[in-house]
Amino acid sequence: TVGRMDRWDMSRMPAFSDPSQQNQSDQTPLRIGVMASGNGSNFEALAQAIDAGTLAAEIRLLVVNNPGCGAQQRAQRLGIPCTVLDHRVLRERERLDQALVDCFRSAAVEVIVMAGWMRIVTPVLINGFADRLVNIHPSLLPSFKGLDGIGQALAAGVKITGCSVHLVTAELDGGPILAQAAVPVEERDTHTSLSERVHQAEHRLLPEAINAMIPVWRQG
Known about the structure:
By secondary structure, the protein is an alpha/beta fold.
């Protein structure tokens, strides 16, 4: 079950500073970039929603930090451009984030989606796409922030968990919540079984949340 769209103060949304993005028709697909580190199922869920006509966007670029990861393989299969920025080469977080900003700006990206990006981001990226950097987290924030939200939920013995789509700020998993979906925790759940249902909810929620935010982003 998809939760309500949370209201937040639209007046705090700054105008997007790149002149090339201005005067865009509301009918033009939102140009999004995606960041992923692993399997890339949320990345493909976005592509499927676009193909189905339920997400008014186009994926201009995928960036991965693990060469050969599942997300990169999905991009090759889907015909979506993909760039590798290996964090083992770009060791300083600020250097990696500046490379991300440069790549996405070169691709004329309007909004970035972190779809399983397993690196802590810095103000270089956060400020580079202020209020246009989106993350999906496998818990009902503000509960179970940080690593392994599903494992934390199981350890806490909660009866309901889920996933959250939120804007990225300097506070880890603490930015404004755009949407949430609740997932019941069953008595016999394992990490694997609960993860599967949470991921299914993520695949529905992420495109819906982005689509609902397009009019807000286009006001900039």
